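Ex. 9. Protein: DivIVA domain-containing protein.
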Amino acid sequence: MDLTPLDVRYQEFPTGLRGYQKEAVRSYLARVAEVMEGLIQENEGLKERLRALEEEVARLKEAEGELKRAVVAAERIARELKAQAEREAELIKKEALAAKDQVLREAAEELKRLKGEVERIRQEKALFAAQFKALLQGYLDSLRHLEGGS
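Predicted structure tokens for DivIVA domain-containing protein:
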């Protein structure tokens, strides 16, 4: 059974032979009714505050859930970016090694070609020197022959 401040304020009591003084009972019931009204108002205020706090908790839980999802997504993206960067670094490394090997092969081929060229030039020089020497020897022999025959 609910009891309201109005119920307390206007409660009637039967009177007996030596019953309570009506004014004292009325005064006390009025004070009780006032206290009840204050408690009821306070209770309603607390209920309203509780509803507001529960709504705030629900909103914060939802925001927390969204934040957790965002963190999980950020971690996943970070892992994917790291893996992609590692793959790209490995590819760049392989390309650099292949380029280095190609440069070394080309340098070795160029060195071999230049050595062959140097050897060919040495041979041509030796041949030219021998032919020139032979030519000079021929002229010298002709000069001696001319000097000796005159």
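Check your answer against this statement. The chain has one domain: 5-149.
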